[in-house]
Write a structure and sequence with these properties.
Mean pLDDT: 93
Strand content: 5-15%
Helix content: 25-40%
Shape: globular
Low-confidence stretches: 1-5
CATH topology: TIM Barrel
Structural class: alpha/beta
Largest sheet: 8 strands, parallel, barrel
CATH class: Alpha Beta
Radius of gyration: 19 Å
Distance between the termini: 38 Å
Number of helices: 11
């Protein structure tokens, strides 16, 4: 028998470390502990006691409604809310993200070579601003380790999973720009059979030179190399919010012309917005003096602008995934009606907790009711306001 109360307690305890307001406590260490618990739950999800708790969580957090379903680039998404890359870098909990209510989850960023990332401390919570600063530097166990981790969890085959699984792939730090196509291709070739879709991350601010790959000539080189792969999942590209309008337009056109499945917008920002003088208690320095990308609520306005720009240039044929500052049903609806078919959560989920997913899904359903829509696809790019 499902025990909803027990599942709520488990869920809250599991993620309570992320919700701590004491910014002096190392956020990366806390996340490591929580992911270790999630890993054990994913590996043992078919054990009677564990499955009972996960089923209880799913009963509380999932929202089933055919109006929220979409088929995009050959994948059936049960709902449009996903977990963004960066949370489960090594895919250790890939088997249970649907239990948290997500319609899809993106693991990674993974690189061909395992790498330790940048020096610590490198992850900081800005609780008052519902934001985070990170300069992780693609720390991960490498593509070969991710492949073994996913196989070990006995996932269903792509297309048959309760939640769509994306794999976010980055460039190894030791690979030069000239070597980048081969470096990305090595990861993709190995991981393609395990992925419903893949995202080419060319926009993290924490790997030197990576954002140069957003140049149209460099991006074309990548795409041309991927076309030679024997098996390749639907490919999306992830861009940064600091691009100027001309660069955004160029990527939108190139993605459409080259037959990419979509664009994920956006990554973290080097802009400090109005937080330049905000002092980090962990380092004693102000944000303008700190390296790394900013995420969370301060990014919401710019992320929305980028989605609108992409939709205006690319039209409705290119799938857009909105990420950055989404921490409420209103923010999710705003991104969808601006042109995003899917939205992703990370920082907002950390601060608001696991109840954020069902709150967003309930909010989206209410808006569909208000406007008399039969499917979330009718809302995509509609520019309809949030209706109270």
């Amino acid at each position: 028998m499902v025990d909803p109360f027990g599942s709520r307690v488990f869920c809250r305890r599991l993620l309570s470390s992320f919700l701590l307001h004491n910014e002096r406590i190392d956020a990366e260490q806390l996340s490591r502990l929580a992911l270790a618990a999630l890993q054990q739950a994913s590996l043992r999800r078919y054990w009677p006691g564990v499955s009972s708790v996960l089923n209880g969580m799913a009963a509380n957090l999932q929202r089933q409604d055919t109006r929220l379903e979409q088929i995009l680039f050959g994948c059936r998404f049960p709902n449009p809310v996903g977990l963004a890359a960066g949370f489960d870098k090594n895919g250790v909990a890939a088997g249970i993200w649907d239990s948290f209510g997500f319609g899809f989850a993106e693991v990674g960023t993974v690189t061909w070579h395992s790498q330790t990332g940048n020096p610590k401390p490198r992850l900081f919570r800005l609780t008052a601003e519902q934001a985070a600063l990170n300069r992780m530097g693609f720390n991960n166990n490498g593509a070969r380790a991710l492949s073994k981790t996913l196989v070990r969890q006995y996932l269903k085959s792509p297309g048959q999973r309760p939640a769509v699984l994306g794999i976010n792939v980055g460039k190894s730090k030791i690979a030069t720009l000239e070597q980048a196509p081969e470096d990305y291709a090595a990861s993709l070739e190995l991981l393609a059979p395990l992925a419903d879709y893949a995202v080419i991350n060319i926009s993290s601010p924490n790997t030197p030179g990576l954002r140069d790959l957003q140049d149209s000539a460099q991006l074309k080189r990548l795409v041309e190399r991927f076309r030679r792969l024997a098996i390749c999942p639907p490919l999306l590209v992830k861009i940064d919010p600091d691009l100027d309008d001309e660069a955004i337009d160029t990527i939108a056109r190139l993605a459409f012309e080259e037959g990419l499945a979509g664009v994920v917008a956006v990554n973290t920002s080097l802009d400090r917005f109005d937080l330049a003088e905000r002092r980090l208690s962990q380092t004693g320095r102000i944000l303008i003096e700190e390296a790394g990308g900013l995420s969370g609520v301060p990014l919401r306005g710019r992320a929305l602008e980028v989605i609108r720009r992409l939709r205006a240039v690319a039209g409705p044929a290119l799938t857009l995934v909105g990420v950055g500052g989404i921490d409420s049903p209103e923010a999710a609806w705003e991104r969808i009606t601006a042109g995003a078919s899917l939205v992703q959560l990370y920082t907002g989920w950390i601060f608001k907790g696991p109840d954020l997913v069902p709150r967003i899904l309930e909010g989206l359903k209410e808006q569909l009711d208000h406007y008399g829509m039969q499917s979330i696809t009718e809302a995509v790019g509609s520019n309809l306001p949030w209706k109270t």
